[in-house]
Design brief:
Layout (H helix, E strand, L loop, with lengths): L1 E6 L21 E2 L2 E2 L9 E8 L3 E10 L2 E3 L13 E7 L8 E7 L4 E6 L7 E2 L2 H4 L5 E2 L5 E5 L3 E10 H4 L13 E9 L8 E3 L17 E5 L1
Parallel strand pairs: 1-4, 1-16
Antiparallel strand pairs: 2-4, 3-15, 4-5, 5-13, 6-12, 7-8, 7-14, 8-9, 9-10, 11-13, 14-15, 14-16
Length: about 220
């Protein structure tokens, strides 16, 4: 699959506003695929992206019914919480490896770069991760689990200068392509699921498979 990323007219701060003018007219990606058995709970998950000369902007919107977050420390196991994930190679060559940005519903991030799953893995420094300026709907732990319909947002911006410290980066410009996938998981909740944007054809859930990444193309 391919997603076209439009250039923002001006820079902006993450605030969780899905309808802000900088995202006006931007089509959302939808996470309609799943890994493993079809989940009993299939939250509606969408994301939008925009870019400028310094940042890639990312916002997720989740319509959920079962929400939990117990991990609040940097680089902790946020995938076990209600979590949205953006995996990306900042070029069209997955041979350079990929970043995995995993963020739970209270804004805790796990941010790494690796060649392949568990190969040449580098944990991005917490100082650099803070430059993503994450907005989250929930603040602090979400426990006990919320078991009623709620909408929540994660928004952040990715500084190219941070990425360049850890991997080769093809800076976004018209016609440039990156390889990516979007995910939603909730391994440790009462209704676990593993949702994807680009289809991952494997018998068991495994997000760390860059060969299944789709394409971002910058406009």
């Amino acid at each position: 699959m391919k997603y076209i990323v439009k250039k923002a007219s001006q820079s902006f701060k993450p605030d969780g506003n899905w309808n802000k003018k900088q995202f006006a007219g931007i089509e959302a990606v939808r996470l309609n695929n799943f890994m493993g058995a079809k989940p009993a709970h299939f939250p509606q998950v969408e994301a939008k992206l925009a870019y400028d000369d310094n940042f890639l902007y990312v916002i997720f919107k989740v319509d959920d019914n079962y929400i939990k977050a117990v991990n609040t420390e940097y680089d902790s196991s946020v995938c076990r919480d209600s979590c949205v994930e953006f995996f990306f190679t900042p070029s069209n060559d997955i041979g350079h490896g990929y970043f995995n940005a995993e963020i739970n519903c209270c804004g805790t991030i796990l941010l790494r770069h690796q060649k392949l799953s568990g190969v040449e893995t580098v944990v991005i420094s917490e100082t650099d991760a803070k430059k993503f300026e994450i907005f989250s709907t929930f603040k602090g732990k979400v426990e006990p689990e919320i078991t009623q319909p709620r909408q929540w947002f994660i928004e952040y911006k990715i500084p190219y200068e941070v990425l360049k410290k850890y991997a080769p980066v093809m800076k976004p410009a018209a016609g440039v392509q990156w390889r990516v996938n979007f995910y939603k998981c909730a391994d440790g909740t009462s209704k676990p699921h593993w949702l994807t944007w680009n289809k991952v054809e494997l018998p068991q859930p495994d997000f760390h498979r860059p060969e299944f990444f789709g394409t971002l193309e910058f406009e």
